[in-house]
Amino acid sequence: MADIVVVEAHTKVLDLDGRPRPFVRVLTRSDEKASVLADKLADLADVETVLIGFHPIRQATMEGQLAEALQPVAQAFTAFALHAFLDTGLARSIESGMADLAALADRHAMDPDRLSALLGYLVNERYLTRVADRWELTGKMRAVARIEPWYTLLIGGYGQLLPTIRELLPAGAPFGSRDAVAVGRGSCGISQYDAIPMIVSLLSGENALLGRIIDIGCGDGSFLASLIKQNQAEAGIGLDSDPGSIRAANESIDSWGLASRLSFQTTTVQDFIAAQSGDGRRDCFLASFVLQEILEQQGEESLRSVLRAISRRGSRLLVVEVEPGRDGLDMTTGLANRYYNAYFLLHALTEQRLASRDYWEAIFADCGFSVARSATVNPEVDSTGLEFGLLLSPRSGWVA
Ligand SMILES: C[S@@+](CC[C@H](N)C(=O)[O-])C[C@H]1O[C@@H](n2cnc3c(N)ncnc32)[C@H](O)[C@@H]1O
Questions:
Q1: Residue nearest to atom 11 of ligand 1 (CA)
Q2: 41 versus 307: which is more confidently predicted?
């Protein structure tokens, strides 16, 4: 490890509450060594790794050029391998102490040779370590496991799209397909970090508990369950056109302890509204990442009639949407690059249409709503400002 320099050891920094924390700063040219060291020190100190940019003369050999140019291919394999490792529960089994190959293969009903190949692959990518016959997660793996919903959405939900990009490009080609259950589960999982806190902040000025939230496109139901658990409403109904998502939601109701306050229905919002009448004044509809789907799948006129029906009932509407880009936003770094770059591509290839905030606000105004409050995501989670939330009131006046 000659190319690692520990610049500051046994030092302390102050956190935002003024409490001292042990701190180590490491300078290195090697991303891999930085991650190994950060992993080893993770329980002892805050570790700052500073990567020293080192740009050797362009690789002269064929092998050097090959290794560099193959990096995206290797990353694609790694993303799918990590998703499989998480989604099968292997990561959880190893974290809970089951680290012997035969026991793992037995627990997960897997072929030991193939499992061994996957684990070996992840060792080489430094997501696992192998000591004698036991595997352990590295800090790098734990960091991935902490944000599993992003893998569930992008790889579990949209991974099947990637081999078909070529076929989706010709004029008149159909839209690409996705795994709807994984999309709903991943999206709701991500929402725990971004959209749900944003919705809670939109509702924080309310002086009375909402009566009922009707969640349009509820996915696996965990978004709505979170809002009810956080006492944002007395009860909730989740609607989703995908039967697999509603099955998953119904399977979780008891574990959330919300059987008396929550119910789920497999239906489109259009059919739900057509079947309902009466006084919805204490209902608040929620449309999180779903108006973009209705817009492309059923068209703007169908979307407008849904919105008009909600405002005519005297119901409010909470909306979460994502802008399709922003002038001046650097798409080459950070979350803009690692998440939104793919997000924009997959929306264009599947049956969804992102639209600007101005576009949405004009439609909401036309359909009888005014914007009561607006918010963006906590910038510590997402500083791009692309995702926004609106609380809309029916213009005729909301009667609590
Ligand atoms: C991206 S997920 C959003 C999940 C969740 N609302 C969230 O904020 O994380 C969109 C969901 O809307 C559902 N959906 C699409 N069109 C719908 C419609 N017309 N009526 C009801 N659900 C619909 C899809 O099946 C999918 O589960």
A1: 217
A2: 307
